[in-house]
Amino acid sequence: MKITRTLLAVLSVTILGIYACSKKDNVQGNATIESSSGSSAKPGELVSFKFNGLAKDGAVDWKITPAGNVQIHSSGNTATVIFSKAGDFVVTAQSGSQQAVQRLSVSATGSSSNKVVSTTASLDGDEITLVPSFPKDSINYLLIRAETKKDYDCLNNFLVSVYSEASNAFTLKYIGVEVPDASICTAGKSKAVATNALYMPVDGTYSFTIKFNNKDYIGSVVKKGTHFNFTWSYTSGVIISPQSI
Length: 245
Hints:
Layout: E1 2-8, E2 13-14, E3 32-35, E4 40-41, E5 46-52, E6 61-65, E7 70-75, E8 78-83, E9 87-95, E10 98-106, E11 115-121, E12 128-133, E13 141-153, E14 158-165, E15 169-179, E16 189-199, E17 204-212, E18 215-224, E19 227-231, E20 238-240
Parallel strand pairs: 4-10, 12-20, 15-17
Antiparallel strand pairs: 1-11, 2-3, 3-5, 5-8, 6-9, 7-8, 9-10, 11-15, 12-13, 13-16, 14-15, 17-18, 18-19
């Protein structure tokens, strides 16, 4: 089953600072970031970024602060992001000595001038593998990278997830694969990926639930210093590997 819906903001417009003042912010070298959004965006809006300032090896490190409530799919010097909740965010891209920073204000009253039709592909019959890690500069976050087993249209597709937390309990719901409109689709097929950041500032045991294809997968994760250990009994549907880092 496929559901067609409208997503805002895809035509790339160069913005040096993503607030209304549109100024450069903490730029190293001649790097800039092109953004598909104006000075504001809405929760759930698709925002694409392009980094102009590649080092010789072509590698780009993308970072969004704060890391919670953000879905990001990056490929080289481009990144597609969904901000699931309102707030003020800082997007940083770095390649070698080149760095550029943009700020984005996300609110329910935000607006964008461009609209693009995308398609949400069903995850029926698929499986997801979760790969945990943590950022080099912080042990307060646990990153969960989810990847589908199946391939989907467009190399720049991404897995759509809904994230929630309450009282040391985390829930991630994977609801489909967002396939971009033909006007911005990168031709080909690839697995769909989503990365979410779980905020875990103190040691302890946290409940961990995945909602996928009308089934709840329930386990837990224990944080002790720089070590994270999952209790996860499932060997199909949703797999966690490795279960200890």
